[in-house]
User: What shape does this take?
Amino acid sequence: MIFLLLVLAFGALLVLVFTLAISWQQERERAIRAEIVSMHRPGDAAARFERIEQALEGIALEVERLAEAQRFSARILAEGKPQLLAREASTRERQDPEAG
Assistant: This one.
């Protein structure tokens, strides 16, 4: 009798676990499909590309600014005038202390 109850309890547990696993998998598939559909909306893609373009333009400006500073530093060091470099750096810090 106890063995029969244990078998029935184990069977019920297996049914419950399989039911939960199947429902979890179906919900996960629904979420993946919804994500794929949301990625392919044309209006969202245009706005996203616009944000990416703006970010790249900002990065390009910063890279150009850094390259100009590097060229300036190389020129000053090549001319053998490190005092001018130090004076220019202190002038820039006074003008824009966050750029340091």
About this structure: The chain is about 90% helix and 0% strand. The first helix runs from residue 2 to 39. The chain has a mean pLDDT of 84.
